[in-house]
Amino acid sequence: MSPADPLRQYLDAARHALDQIATTQLDAIRAAANRFARTIAQNRLVHVFGTGHSRMAVEEVFPRYGSFPGFHPIVELSMTFHNPVVGANGQRQAMFLENVQGFGPVLWRNFATSPDDCLLAISTSGCSAVTVDVALEAKRLGLFVVALTSCAHADSSAPRHASGQKLHQIADLVLDHHAPPGDSAVWIDQLETPVAPLSTLTSCTIVNLIKAEVARLLTQAGHPPYVLTAACHLGPERAAALFEQTYDDYRRRIGVLYR
Fold first, then answer.
1. CATH code at position 191
2. Of 64, 60, 180, nearest to 120 (Cα)?
3. What are the residue ranges in the chain where pLDDT is below 70?
4. ∠ CA 211-230-177, rounded to 5°
5. Whole-angstrom Cα distance, residue 32 to residue 177?
6. pTM for this model (two decimals)
7. Residue 34: inside a domain, yes or no?
8. Cα→Cα distances 198→75, 158, 231, Å
């Protein structure tokens, strides 16, 4: 029998993954949001790190319309700038660098972290040596580490870090975004490999669930965040003023990293 219509396959796979998140992950998402809200309310930071295409989920956290300060996105261009594909800054180099050992201590030495900080480490496979390295060093520094990963993908992948560990084995709390093993979800008749990955959809869904709950908790506690907001919600003048307040607040918050 030929595979089902590709469009239907992808939509069905996306619905199934989102249903799995709703069924199995909401308690863990609330736990992460509670921890993150406490950190932000204390004027400390939730660092967010990912390499490769996980960069998309990192930048979905902040800065993005509908997002707010308290999250500190860490994106290394050498491992995320994919546009050239080949040649200088090409994909081969980025994928090689993703598996260089010892990157974690080098990265964290740039920042004055605190045990009150958190790390949200994002890797669909959970096997990127650099992301594992960053998470291990964060743990050594006393940060609370949350992994956003696909457990099914991790279970079908070999570890690439010298410790033999995968991201979900290091973290204090694991959020499973339920992308399938290998990530791609659509099979085409007479094509030997699947296409159309799910992880951007599923990881960004969890990221936005976290943001929504953190915003609720902060507001409930009397610390409503400054939110990057479109003019259609508040009018152009108020939206522009809020834009400036949001970035001023972010600049103030990240000042603790350079003391």
1. 3.40.50.10490
2. 60
3. 1-3
4. 30
5. 14
6. 0.94
7. yes
8. 21, 20, 31
Domain of 218, in residue numbers = 6-225
- Tell me, yes or no, whether 16 lies in a domain: yes
State both tokens at 116. 């009150």
Structure tokens at 213: 């709950």
Q: What is the mean pLDDT of the chain?
A: 94
Task: Indicate whether 247 belongs to any domain.
Answer: no
Task: List pLDDT tens digits, range 134-157.
Answer: 999 999 999 999 999 999 998 888
What is the rounded distance in angstroms from the CA atom of residue 208 to the CA atom of residue 67? 9
CB 94 within 8 A of CB 77: no
pLDDT value of position 66: 96
Task: Classify residue 239 as exposed, middle or buried by CB count within 10 Å of its CB (0-12, 13-18, 19+).
Answer: middle
In a domain, 149, yes or no: yes
Amino acid at 76: E
Taking a C-beta distance cutoff of 8 angstroms, is the pair 242, 227 a contact? yes
